[in-house]
Amino acid sequence: QAWRASLLWFDPHADEPHPRYEADGLLVTAAGADGVRRVVAVGAFDTLRAAYPDVPLTERRGRLIAPGFIDLHIHYPQTDVIGSPAEGLLPWLAQYTFPHESRFADPAHARAVARFFCDELLRQGVTTALTFATSHPGSVDALMAEAEARGLRCIAGKVLQDRHSPDGVRDRTEQSLRDTEALIIRWHGRARLGYAITPRFAPSCSDAQMRGAGELAARYPDVWIQSHVAENVDEVRWVRELYPHDRSYLAVYERFGLLRERAVYAHGIYLDADDQRALAQSGAAIAVSPTSNLFLGSGFFDYATARAGGVRLGLASDVGGGMSFSPFATMRAAYTVGRAAVRGDGRPKTGVSLSPFDLWWQHTAGAARALGLGGVVGSLAPGSEADFVVLDPAATPLLARRTAQAESLAEWLFALIMLADDRAVTEVVVAQGPGTQIFTGGASAVHAGPP
Ligand code: GUN
Ligand code: FE
């Protein structure tokens, strides 16, 4: 199949954003023997069409086709926790998150939320997600089944939390590790699914559970690891009390063998130069989660220092600490957080003005690099899996007005980042399964009034 539109993508193997753009482009895709559709050619319509004269053409001139977005850190069971106000991270976990996640012991509940979650990701243009489930193994089964049915590239894991966790979500050390291994065998590498070993965060895992997680990570080197690190000043203080002999919060994970390629740590606001070096050398990545950090009052990510230290990073919603599934909301918040000249613990940082290309890269090819999936997803370069979005720059009156005024591609993209939402995402195409999904915008027609 071939699509004609304006095309934007990034070099899939670079460690910084190298944008590619065709104002009048042609994107040619074809299914491989494995049933996955991939990009076979991309370029200017005029020069490329002659080479593919018989491929059916979908005309989308006036719209932008870009790679499907990658959400580098999200919690599917927190879909219904969005917008729950609390006095910061730890009270928020106790008051809303843990009680909510306890409901996922019920497979029917897990299935219902998984269904909504997968539909919502796609509706917002997200085609790859690295997500937490809950501590209940059935919560992973529910999600994987729904993701597979939609062709989503979904990497997920059962949460490990055998201490400092209430009844209903706390798991048992030995059983949690057996469950993790069984889930790896059941789901990792099936269709577009992957497994992530998921210690919730250092405070919620005993030494034995952390050691077991590290052993599994060594035994299954192409399985992912996901956790949280250095998100909030109270959390960092707590980790220092729990692990007085470790040099830093990140060093705890390092000691248990949880710092390696394909390990993604959310937040990383309060890291020092040694932590940055350990991340860069190990190939582990940070999932920058700016709407969550703003909502929970956690702090402002220090882009200048992380970049100088060579840390791999990408963007994440962190729903339900995060406020929105929309990649545009996340990119907007990342820009805002980047500008801030403070970190959140009284320490100054250098404010940066992230370019629209940089923001977009962090949510596509950059995030793919962070996952170790550079060249697989997050780009339109030939060989990439054909996950992409069709965006309407005239989806709302203000968006139409500001994009029409843009005098450069950078200005045009910046207007989109600042003003777009799900209404701009008119079609989403995934590389496997059902293929094109067409959205007309808007949600359910049935609205209940305020209580
Ligand atoms: N740290 C441990 N668990 C969580 C969680 O669910 N959300 C966030 N934002 N941070 C965490
Ligand atoms: Fe999180």
Automatic annotation (TrEMBL):
EC class: hydrolase
CC per GO annotation: cytosol
The reaction(s) this protein catalyses: guanine + H2O + H(+) = xanthine + NH4(+)
Cofactor(s) needed: Zn(2+)
Pathway named in the protein's UniProt entry: Purine metabolism; guanine degradation; xanthine from guanine: step 1/1
One Pfam assignment: Amidohydro_1
Keywords from the named record: Hydrolase, Metal-binding, Zinc
UniProt EC number: 3.5.4.3
Note describing how the cofactor binds: Binds 1 zinc ion per subunit.
Gene Ontology BP annotations: guanine catabolic process
Molecular function in Gene Ontology: guanine deaminase activity; zinc ion binding
Gene3D superfamilies associated with the record: Metal-dependent hydrolases, Urease, subunit C, domain 1
SUPFAM superfamilies (alphabetical): Composite domain of metallo-dependent hydrolases, Metallo-dependent hydrolases
Sequence ranges assigned to domain Amidohydrolase-related in this UniProt record: 65-430
Alphabetized InterPro entries for the sequence: Amidohydro-rel, Guanine_deaminase, Metal-dep_hydrolase_composite, Metal_Hydrolase, Metallo-dep_hydrolases
PANTHER family, A to Z: GUANINE DEAMINASE
Function: Catalyzes the hydrolytic deamination of guanine, producing xanthine and ammonia.
Name of the protein in its database record: Guanine deaminase
